[in-house]
Amino acid sequence: MTHLIDGRPWEGTAERTGPVFNPATGERTGAVDLASAELVGAAVASAHTAWRSWRNVSLARRTRVLFAFRELLHARKDEIAALVTAEHGKVLSDALGEVTRGLEVAEFACGIPHLLKGGFSENASTAVDVHSIRQSLGVVAVISPFNFPAMVPMWFVPIAIACGNAVVLKPSEKDPSAALAVAALWKEAGLPDGVLQVVNGDKEAVDALLTHKDVKAVSFVGSTPVARYVYETGTAHGKRVQALGGAKNHMLVLPDADLDLAADAAVNAGFGSAGERCMAISVLVAVEPVADRLVAGITDRMARLRTGDGTRASDMGPLVTREHRDKVASYIDAGVEAGATLVVDGTKGDFDADGDGFFLGPTLFDDVRPDMPVYTDEIFGPVLSVVRVASYDEGLDLINANPYGNGTALFTNDGGAARRFQNEVEVGMVGINVPIPVPVSYFSFGGWKNSLFGDSHAHGTEGVHFFTRGKVVTSRWLDPSHGGINLGFPRNE
Ligand code: NAD
After folding, report:
1. How far apart are the CA of 394 and the centre of ligand 1, in A?
2. For 28-62, what is each residue's pLDDT tens digit?
3. Distance from C-alpha of 380 to C-alpha of 278, rounded to nearest angstrom
């Protein structure tokens, strides 16, 4: 797998490559070229040239490309989903779900002529008109994580392109094929060569993007330490940066909640995609006296989950790499050592797969306390921790004290409590009886606190804002009455 530079696969020989695995079999299925800083420079230069024309392509023609891309992606979504499953490991239905969520952002971007409309005021001063326009930034970089190899690039790429920018996309080196396949669809849809470049790589490529003078903005999604680094380095180099980071999402269950619904939700949101979602629920906060019943309900449901190859009838696939599986498994030991109650041990289980895949079954801890590593760290795997609290207030304080603020959910049948929660909780995305409150494309996606550095969330109108700059034009068409010298600051008259 190589880069896509100026509309064509790169033909050079990479000095460094990275392995790509099928996590369900443990087999190494390919190698991805890792870009040098020089190659990133070539991609940015080509993108910059393409931007100079693309920025002035009419909205009508841009929109035609977007609609064509939307149709192609819709027609080929199963192929893209299969690539996601082959390199990420998530089950096919889940992979298809992520492609569909990405598709929705492309659909939103089809409305770009309306979204880019400026304002106009006639006679702001006598015979003076003022209007605003939004213009593209230039070359923008998109750097994405392994866990949504199709969707996360699509949170940004369609909007950035629709706004008239050129994009250099750096997908995760762990599962680059989906992004490359989607980039091929853009070309097929009629996007001029160079407007979308794909460079594969690791820190070297990211650093080259963060420091390149012609990269004007960076959209990053990944873990918190890297997000913070990307934000600090990018802004220090004068770029506009939105850097979405990690998460530790809590689901608060009040005693009046429908406990069956809550147990279903905890299992779906805790173990879907093997817990490798930034919106996964990793902490269940049970307000007494319902914890025993909730833990029993969740345990029953976990016993029915099938873990195995994502192309088979599995509910949950493997983890992305062997190292990550081992790291997640190490938290099971750490939880036991810290004194949490291990209710379900994911290391014991049968996996429906051939070979030596990176599997770990779903794991449940009860009696978790906020000082334990299973609570403090983002594990990013199928490990759900139950924290028992005595009241709503205790649960809310726990959530608000957490350094992450990506998503949270409340389960209750009390409208007043739900209303209070949505007002008081310090988290960017809130679900009320919805365990994974992922905003739809026309709302914006993003957390608070250590889950997002920068002030713009992804997609929706904030995305359009992020990828454009405002300009205000004041105009007067001269006639003889406008003559004369006056050095005073102009007054509105
Ligand atoms: P990661 O931070 O390891 O990698 C993300 C990107 O940064 C990749 O493209 C990678 O090549 C690059 N990168 C890695 N290390 C780097 C370094 N030292 N310097 C510069 N670039 C570097 O994240 P990941 O493991 O691929 O993805 C999982 C993480 O992403 C989790 O923490 C998850 O919560 C987070 N995530 C957040 C959101 C969100 O919306 N907030 C969405 C999806 C994933």
Report:
1. 32
2. 999 999 999 999 999 999 999 999 999 999 999 99
3. 8
**For the purposes of burial, counting CB atoms within 10 Å of the CB of 403, is it exposed (0-12), middle (13-18) or buried (19 or more)?**
exposed
ipTM for this prediction = 0.99
State which H helix or E strand residue 205 sits in.
helix 203-211
List the helix and strand counts (H, then E) for the chain: 16, 22
What is the pTM (predicted TM-score) of this model?
0.97
Q: Which domains does the chain have, with CATH numbers?
A: 4-245+451-473 (3.40.605.10), 249-432 (3.40.309.10)
Q: Which atom of ligand 1 is nearest to the CA of 226?
A: 2
Give the three-class secondary structure for 186: helix
DSSP-derived secondary structure letter, 127? T
Q: Has residue 327 got a pLDDT over 80? A: yes
Choice from 17, 142, 151, 172 to test ligand 1 binding pocket (greatest atom count within 8 A of CB): 172
pLDDT tens-place string over residues 390-428: 999 999 999 999 999 999 999 999 999 999 999 999 999
Ligand 1 nearest atom to the CA of residue 380, by list position = 31
Query: What gap in Å lies between CA 237 and CA 292, rounded to an integer?
Result: 53
CB 362 within 8 A of CB 302: yes
